[in-house]
Amino acid sequence: MPFQSKGPRRSFGWKASAMFLFALLFFAWGIGNTSLWDIDEPIYAQSLKDQIAQHNLVVPTFNARLMPDKPALNYWLMWTGVKVLGMNSWGLRIGSAVVGALLILYLTMALRRLYGENTALICGLLTATALHSTVIFRGATPDPLLILTVTVALLSYLRGYLLPESRRRELLIAYAAMALATLDKGPIGFLLPGLIIVLFLLLRRDLAFLWRESRLTWGVPLFLIITLPWYLAVGIETHWAWDRAFLLQQNIGRFDDSMQGHRGPWVYYLASTFLGMLPWSIFLPQVFRDLWLSRRDSLHNQPKTLFLLVWVTAWIGFFALSATKLPNYVWEAYPPLFILLAAYFEKVRVNATHPARWGWTLSLGVLFLTGLALSIFAGWVVLSRQPHLPDMVEVGAPYMLAAVAAFVLLRRRRETEAWMALCVGSVALAALLVFVITPPLNAVKPSRDMGQHIAALQGQQPYRLASWRWFQPNFLFYAGRGNMPIRHLQALTELPAVLGPEPLYLVCPARDIPAVRAALPAAYQQQTVMVRYEIYNHENIALLRITARQKPTEGS
Fold first, then answer.
1. How does 415-427 read in b/e, with b if 16+ C-beta sit within 10 Å?
2. What sequence ranges are listed for the domain Glycosyltransferase RgtA/B/C/D-like (predicted)?
3. C-alpha dihedral over 421, 424, 428, 434, to 10 degrees?
4. In 111, 316, 389, 532, which residue has its Cα 20 to 30 A from 451's Cα atom?
5. How far is CA 468 from the centre of its chain?
6. Beta partners for 489?
7. Where are the domains of the chain?
8. Those residues with Cβ within 8 angstroms of residue 555's Cβ, 6 or more apart along the chain or in another chain
9. What confidence tens digit (pLDDT) does each residue in 376-433 have?
10. CB 92 within 8 A of CB 82
11. Across-strand partners of 527?
12. Which uninterrupted H or E stretch holds 115?
């Protein structure tokens, strides 16, 4: 199929800009409605506080120790948001919303020449309104940056492969994007994209393209210029301790053994991908059926389809073999699936393919049942185990209503209106989550309130922090100042060594208050500041204030 003309029409440029603004508003609205979610968000947030307090944005630390979890790029992004909006949920998360909107813009612009304007716009809309997009681009984590940079790297490489007249520019963009991905998450930022590219070229029997046309003599130096300065700086400053821990623990260790209890069966990512891409994942069976029926043409005469399939298979397959499993690990496999979905929807729109009506009905039935299952799970199963949580029975209603509306519209052969009904359902679900369901959860995440109590009691006066049998990174972020550390007690016999002239704020399960009081030296007194139920450990957590007793004055 010939490519469309190079120059984007002015109307398409306006549509792409409108898509970017819609995505930015969609990802950013109410982004500060909730306190940070343990454990990832406050770990990165507190590490940034440490770095700012130490005037050192090179070496990530947490609680007075090196933090080798992730490289520096995401910290720099969060630092930018904090400079604008402050050290709070808004400032820490706004960068992810901007990155998500940039992903939508890039997909829309990059796909125009490969698939046409309509498919490009549809892909942007599908990506923005997927369920996992509502979550991932609203969090202060490194994942949004990796998603953007990997998507740019792989699509730019594909564009360079298919468009000789812009090959040099596109390939250099691909190398730069892989370098930024490596600065955000490490070796995975170039190893997996590189593997996908090599597998694609092998299947195309065109591996020679790597050294013949891939501009390696320009790309490799560009990659090194972007990545090496920070990795060398952090290595020199920490005597290579950060680099060793990052490579051995956070990369090889995560692949070889599950970390933080994040494990799962081999079908884990099939289920998580289906849920993450809702409501659009219900149409994936039709897409793959259509690809199977046209497999000879798609794989031999349509290299872009082959590239997308290799991208999906290699990315999900790699993490399926990993011992540590998290839904976020395979989000980078969503863009090629959204592209295939958008291309399929466009074929249906122009009558280039004719899907079976029973297939559409079955898909919408699955969406309705998924919404029903969400409501049952959130409204009855969760509440039966967690009675402290607010009622969330309405969470599945947007999908159920959207499925019914889309079914009625499809019966009338109004496919475009049916897809828009699903978009409206996705936006409605996001609004429900952001403004109705998640804000009340702040009541069962007491760390922010504990921090506010400490600030009100202490003002500018010094104090210390300690924990016993309970700790969440959120507490250190909200309760501490700058790079203030917290002492994790291994036994209550350690308590006297932590005490000093300034107040000590100790968090512990409420049931342990008598034991803490019994362990106090006679010269100190304990005050219970607050006791609140906490969602993560499913028990009441107490904040205690321990201070030295005032010596009686003469004559009293």
1. beebbbbbbbbbb
2. 69-230
3. 150
4. 389
5. 30
6. 468
7. 8-353, 446-548
8. none
9. 998 888 887 888 888 888 999 999 999 999 999 988 888 889 999 999 999 999 999 9
10. yes
11. 545
12. helix 89-115
